[in-house]
Amino acid sequence: xxxxxxxxxxxxxxxxxxxxxxxxxxxxxxxxxxxxxxxxxxxxxxxxxxxxxx
Length: 54
What we know:
2 helices
C-alpha cells in the first residue's frame, strides 16, 4: 500500500542553517537559555509589544 502524506514540512535550504549550527558548535551552548533562545524571546516580545514573553 502506498503512503499518503497529509503534511510536508517546508524547510529552507540547509546552507541557510549552517552559520547557526557553526555558532552552536563554537559556543557549545545547547540549552533553552542559550543565545538563540534569548534573541528569539527578545524579538518576540518586541513584535508583540510586551516587556516579556516568559
